[in-house]
Amino acid sequence: MTRHVVLLRGVNLGSRNRIAMPELRALLTDAGFDDVATYVQSGNVVVSSRRAPERVAREVERLLESRLGLEIDVVVRTRDELVQVVRRNPLREVATDPKRYQVTFLAAELPAQTLRELGELAHAQERFAAHGRELYAWHPAGVARSKLWARLASHDLGVAATSRNWTTVTKLLELAEA
């Protein structure tokens, strides 16, 4: 069995895409996923399954739509992949506040042109690093006025994507290793 970290995009933000975590855990357990655990209310789930990560993502999307009527993008990483995301940590020297340090998880790598555009959006104090299907972004002044964050949070990347702060990333790794 492989531990998978299942990341739902845009869950429980305001009145949109409302999902109670007990309901989500029950839905996934009933669908045959094992060891289902959630973290906070924003669509962070850890499950065990023999399925490939891409299949886990598609199945969770299908379940959310067919059972709850919600069209939500889902991105999945295995525990081993998440270990590498945390080990890599390319901005560790500057990202001193884990709540202002974001990792955007992508369903597929972005084209070089899109990565250049993202880098150009970062203001002088922000830092941005891309590695494969992860984008690391340090927002020392927060995300409220960040053009980089606005683009990362948009649907304009061309692939399914969802972001988590560093605190959440490391907590999800702890859950996946439990």
CATH topology of the largest domain: Alpha-Beta Plaits
| First and last CA, distance | 13 Å
Helix content class = 25-40%
Count of separate structural domains: 2
Q: What is the strand content? A: 25-35%
> Based on CA inertia axes, which overall geometry fits?
globular
Element-by-element helix/strand order: EHEEHEHEHEEHEH
Give a brief outline of the structure.
The protein is α+β, with helices and mostly antiparallel strands and 178 residues long.
Helices, strands, pairings?
Layout: E1 2-8, H1 21-30, E2 34-39, E3 44-49, H2 53-68, E4 74-78, H3 79-88, E5 101-106, H4 112-121, E6 127-131, E7 134-138, H5 147-153, E8 161-165, H6 166-177
Antiparallel strand pairs: 1-3, 1-4, 2-3, 5-7, 5-8, 6-7
Helix pairs in contact: 3-6, 4-5
3D structure, described in words:
The protein has six helices and eight strands. The chain has 178 residues and is of the alpha+beta class. It folds into two domains: 2-80, 2-Layer Sandwich (Alpha-Beta Plaits); 82-177, Alpha-Beta Plaits (2-Layer Sandwich), CATH 3.30.70. The strands form two sheets. Strands 2-3-1-4 form a four-stranded antiparallel beta sheet, sandwiched between helices. Strands 6-7-5-8 form a four-stranded antiparallel beta sheet. A hairpin with a 2-residue loop joins strand 6 (127-131) and strand 7.
